[in-house]
Amino acid sequence: MSLDLDALKVFVRVAELRSFTQAAHQLGMPKARASAHVQKLEAELGTQLLQRSTRVVRPTPEGEQLLKRAHGLLAEAEEIAALFHASRALRGRVRVELPVLIAREFVIPRLPELLARHPQLQLDICASDRLVAAVREGFDLVLRVGPVNEPGLVGRRIGEAPMMNCASPSYLRQHGTPRTLDDLRDHFVVHYATDPVPVFEYFDGKTYKELPMRSVVTVDNFDVYEAACIAGLGIVQVPRPGLERHANKLVEILPEFIARPVPITLLHTHGRSVPRRVRAVMTWLMELLSPTVGELVRAR
């Protein structure tokens, strides 16, 4: 018995997203065709792979067993095909999730170079500052700025971005410029929603500590985080990359009390068997972003 690889691809996406509608949208096919692919695969294997209801779709125990091996099977099939088509052009879709700042400032401006090199490649770029569930939402590659605590992701550290403390001139005119940690008692920070409570992180010479702070606004997007600071709503702690675009809008403060550098990591969701198209995009992103991070670290 031979497995229909197209049907297997559809099953994997449906099982991970737990939705025929979302899977069909990502795969660029009608929902009815996605359902037909899964039904065909179930018929070939003689077992039910998905439990379907009006509210949710979830793998059966047999479906879970197949899902654990499916990524490897699909990647191995692609690698075997590549052995006999070494010069074959890269084709297919690669789904990438990037922080908004990195997508806008560093990746999108250079993307025409990659697509000129691989014209049959298609990229879906999700620019978002929320923490996506990479495997469940069907991404091939994700770039994380900060700690990574997600199962199923494998990747490479690009580097670390140094941090800085900033406030706007209007904020400093109203509240004064803090010179010491004690001065922060009379100040506010812009609260980023991923942090449980508003804090000011600093290095005391031995370790990093957090000072509880007051806040009048909470945001969940980095662009809005910076905009809130520029509007005079509080102090922010931000990576140095790209901050030169805010010349005269932000002022660095308390340079001796900066937060820990944030790691920047590029990760994939394919375990030990990475499809050739995904590996090519990952290599390109590493080559594109590593020098930028390296220059920022050396300039500290």
UniProtKB/TrEMBL annotation:
InterPro entries: LysR-type_TF_proteobact-type, LysR_HTH_N, LysR_subst-bd, WH-like_DNA-bd_sf, WH_DNA-bd_sf. The keyword Transmembrane helix does not apply. One of its GO terms (biological process) is DNA-templated transcription. Pfam families: HTH_1, LysR_substrate. Gene3D superfamilies: 3.40.190.290, Winged helix-like DNA-binding domain superfamily/Winged helix DNA-binding domain. One of its GO terms (molecular function) is sequence-specific DNA binding. The keyword Magnesium does not apply. Residues 3-60 form the HTH lysR-type domain. Keywords: DNA-binding, Transcription, Transcription regulation. Belongs to the LysR transcriptional regulatory family. This is LysR family transcriptional regulator.
